[in-house]
User: Fold this.
Amino acid sequence: MSFMRFFLVGWSLFALMSIVGCKADKEQKAPVALTWEMGATNVEPGYYENTFVLKNISDEPLSKEWAIYYSQLPRKVKQGTPAVRVEVVNGNFFKISPTEQFVPLAPGDSMRITFRCTYKVDRNSQVPEGTYWVETVDGKEGKPLPVMMNARPLPSPESLKGYPDASRIYESNLRLADAPALKGSDILPSVKKAVPMEGSLTLEGKVALTFSDEFSVEAGLLKDKLTGVYGLEVTETAPVSIVLEPLADKEEAVNDEYYALCVGNGQIKISAATSHGIFNGTQTLLAMLKGKQRPYQLKAVSIQDYPDLAYRGQMIDIARDYTTPENMKTLIDVLASYKMNVLHFHFSDDEGWRLEIPGLEELTAVGSRRGHTTDESSCLYPCYDGGYDPDAATPGNGYYTREAFIDLLKYANDRHVRVIPEIESPGHARAAIVSMKARYNKYIETDPEKATEYMLSEPEDTSRYMSVQYYTDNVMNVALPSTYRFMEKVIREIDAMYKEAGAPLATIHLGGDEVPHGVWMGSPKCQALMKEKGMVQTHDLSEYFITQLADIMYRNGLKVSGWQEVALGHTEEAHRQLRSQTAGVYCWSTGPGSDEVVYQTANNGYPVILCNVGNFYMDMSYNGHPDEGGLDWGGYVDESISFSMLPYSIYRSLRADRKGNPIDLDKAAKGKVALTEVGKHNIIGVQGQLFSETIRNFESVEYMLFPKLMGLAERGWEARPAWGVLSGVQEEQAFNRALALYYEKISKDEMPHWAKIGVNFRLPQPGLRVKEGTLYANVAINGAEIRYTTDGSEPTAQSMLWKEPVKCDASVVKAKAFYQGKESLSILLKVE
Assistant:
């Protein structure tokens, strides 16, 4: 199922919940309906036409006393239709309202509201959403009511920028044609060393499990999987036994995650020096059962395995799109099955604060709720999902109670997944800033000291700025002592939760990214601090903030982590402090002109986690098809692109440019900063990012992650693939063989397993080519069916099945892939 279908289903459910949410809404409905369409794109450089058709569906004339609100990805607006004003309320929240020139609209009549916007809409997940109506009486707005909105199809979708080229996909898939047959030890991520032995064993109905006491948690989790997923009864005695035991020679362990697994002689033995190593071995065993039917037959083999990189993480943004603890547990379980060991918990941002902090109740009372408001005293403005009811079960509302978060920490810790929380600061902090303003207003009359204790903004600040997401009020004031009291309060409360959960906490991620130009320049407090400290530029204030927070963290037994900006442009004195107090610098900006930052940072002595936008930003769309969700400012990311990332050769990590043209990999590093031996030691891990501006439900979270996540898991475990040190034709051939094996694993083992356990995933589109009147087709997924049409209609499971080259004289061919109950988006080929 496509992202757009999930988007529409999610919106339909949201609208339904909103409508039935209160008795008044059942009895009332908005007097208007909207239809949206994208207009001309060449009316003015940088702007396109945006049109709403407003129809009066009531029995009364439509007067001037109303407003309609909607959400859309941030953009600038220029007025058009004189009778109606369209304006940005805040960031990605917009308002439509009549002007004095508005003439009452008779029942059944319509009018076109045309205006200009930056950023052309070229995919369906970016159209306006969450439209709702309010009536105004004497300047005051009444109760919101949902507005039904229809979005007209984008014109000529196959001509949109980035629409996938069916012929290019076909050529790309040809390199996968000679995929090798899978061996029993061919799993994801790949094992380091597997030595085949004579014989095999069969797991029938029962299996015995014995283990050392220190591995009881891992044994319990293994038993649950063997029983729940594979239908095996775990008993004390059985023909085949699984043994979990300490490694006889601890010197054999390359690192803490090393394990040895031996299959043969009626026994499966997993040995390791640590419980984490044992857990990894159990996940390898379970992976070897994927794609098989009972009775499960395993060939005898001896495996020695360990990861190259200690940090293998995935960031999940629950600030923009709330993800429940239950769904997060599901995700943790799947991440752990691929031996990933970090969940980066992005719980705060401009659009939401999702974690209960005792003593700062406003963070969740206000900051975890989005809905209709004129002053944000009780909730934040709607955004992204557009939900107007702050109490409804929408993607904009929700938070983790202290108890729920502690429970999540325990769940993750049992599966050897560290949870690293992120307190976005000083930028991306709007939810916290608004919440502390609400606290100020609540207590200023009764307890002024309490009102100002944790303030994050200065009322006298006249600074003018605009963030990347078009916010003008989302940066903490770094000169206020109350800002540091707030941060230390949150840090200590989080630390207490980890201690109660018995889970390790070595670092907290403090964000630090995208502080906009112009911030703090109109703040009297900041100007006074700059004068006192002899500062000359705003970066000095950023440096002051991060060094102060690093000291606070250090006093609390923690190290600081942050996005790459926290380690850039500092004085040598600041670098000396931060090198010793930093656990990780998350380098993300790896496009042309900024890719050297990664190795510069590592060479400068900082521990680096590679978050390459071009390879590991899972919120980037798979391709330019209009029904694909996601963003594309960092390019497109699919499972082959995540697989191609090279931690120690990042300049060679993208094999094609933004237009799909191949890059000369042998020249990619020419003239660029080289990774030193010191720097190589400082590359400690890889991480995927899933920001959720375009995500509305958990099914879409899974869709964007699977199968992209497979490349991330593979590269964190195997950071030095054999093809990574080759060049020219040899490199291309070796890469294609490795890629073919990778796709074979995904096809034969992972996708059937995801279908079995209920994980949503994406099927890639097939490739098409018509040559000399003959239609050729292929798809990257082995076993998938290709169904096609020649009359321009959308293919279905009943359409013609492509099996072999077939004569074709049609002018257009459309095709889809079908596999494991899923279908791909369609692909269109115009025949010349």
About this structure: The chain is about 30% helix and 25% strand. The radius of gyration is 28 Å.
